[in-house]
Amino acid sequence: MIIKLAIRNLFHDRARFLVTLVGILFAVVLVAVQLGMYFGARLMITGMIDHAKGDIWIAAYGAESFEQAPLLTGRERFTALSVPGVVAVTPLLVSFSDWRRPDSSTTNVVVIGSDEDEASLEPWNIVEGAATSTSPDGVIVDRTYAKSLGVSGAGEIGEIEGKRVRVEALTNGIRSFTTSPYVFTSLNKAHKLLSIPSDQATFYLVKLAPGAAAAEVKRELASRLPGASVYTKAEFLQRNLDYWLFGTGAGVALLGGALLGLIIGTVIVAQTLYSSTKDHLGEFATLRALGSSSYYIHKVILTQAAVSAFAGYTLGAGLSLAIAAFSGETALPIVFTPGLAAFLFAVTLAMCVVSAVSSILKVTKIDPAMVFAR
Amino acid sequence: MKRVPVLEARHIVKELGQGDAKIRALKGVSLTLFPGEFTLLMGPSGSGKTTLLSILGCILSPTSGTLTVSGECATGRSAEELADLRRRHFGFIFQAYNLFPTLNALDNVKIALDVRGFGAAERRERAEAALRDVGLSHRLNSYPGTLSGGEKQRVAIARAIASSPSIVLADEPTSALDTENGHAIMALLAKLAKDENRTILAVTHDPRTIPYANRVIEIEDGRISGQKKSAEAPHNIAEHQTGSGRVKNNQRRKRHVHA
Predict the structure, then answer these.
(1) B63 and chain A in contact, CB less than 8 A
(2) Torsion angle, alpha carbons of A56, A59, A63, A69, to 10
(3) What is the CATH number of the domain that holds B107?
(4) Is residue B44 part of a domain?
């Protein structure tokens, strides 16, 4: 009977219920989009580090992120190789540069130079062409950025720092948080394109021997490389997330937007639920006069909140899924995972339950004697 | 054999308002109600009838005095404890019916049984029986908006009696009804008291209701000013005028009300 009464109360004023649903829908979509963008940004930021085979990263002191790090001298590689537990040390060159399109306009890119090795970073998810490290001018870019690079497919030509490059393969889904497209090439080609001495690198990726303790090796590397910073993979991931999401304020803006959505949703639902409760106050007073406990009436209001949450969430999640699917091919994809969907439902339910508090306080003070009011 | 009172009020005082606006609505009212008795509470507007009904029904707490319901002391109780007493002992009929507009007649009765903790099957069985008893078995699925005033009051009576409470309190049950429906409702209440041994107390202004009652209590200026037994035998009138409202001595439904 509680569910029936709650649903009937909600549907009694369809216009108000519609306003409630629209409020919840927009709150859900806003939170989903903001959090989806946040998780999308996390994936973009951590993608390179996740796909690198190295267990430990050696960077120059003061390296802020994967894309913004000074060069190492080259000496670090040999020092690292002498540390027990290290089986391979692979150089990685990463640097911003300019890409000149066929129409002579330029755009910023991030050149990544790496050779196939035990600890290397190689492009993944190649969907067109093939990586041939023997090609003298070959590079690999993501098809999301093909248009901004002025190419339409494998075999097309571009220019980096005045040197001709040829797109030999396209990947799918390797996006850059900085919006500057990643351009993969061999270490040797990267050195030449960027005019950097061949003994220098931005990072050294360390592969550990099976069973070696990463923390212990890291400590030993740090003690032998006083001018460098040494991170485990997890530490370097976190450093990049901290820098891009919180150092730049981007993450705060996204999470702040999600919080704003929650606040707006809560206020809208609270207002409409309170208004509905006020309209049905006489009926709640009748229930109270008939002997219902306060808890019984609270359950009616909470059920109204839960029904609103479920209906609003279903619509909101549906729209969010559509937006996420639409954003899949853009430079800033929205990630909508089953985990996020479950989290959103819990948040929506909590939002509606919190919204019911003012109504519950109202009916708690209800005077059953009002049933005798003339 | 000595009759055992079902409701006993002693020296009930009720003050309403605060400070200079404080008024004494009841000034030491004492009364006793017995099973099977249909009592009318009559008096002019502002005499304290409804305040007394609210206190007797455990809806309001008295400022002083004692109230005993089926042997249980009802004074000094919390709001939740009073609700529990109402749930176990009382049925209410309101002047404005107070039906739920979004629920049909059957659900309006069922929700009162749900409040009292009856299970789904018993809720349906009791609600259908109560609506049948008040002559509305053909209107189970009708919503209050489609019912006449008399039919609405019958639904309210069905709601009040469905859980077999020992006491039914009615506030001006005929004031919103035409003469014919007013008589029918009073006859129904009188028959409930007689056939089902319920205690019924109705507040009313309407002198045409007097013949249906066993006893009339007059209240004026917060005090009981008189009591008299009705001159006519109420059950004869009830049997004559009940019409479609068939009230059976339905012992099957006289079970203990769920706590």
Answers:
(1) no
(2) -120
(3) 3.40.50.300
(4) yes
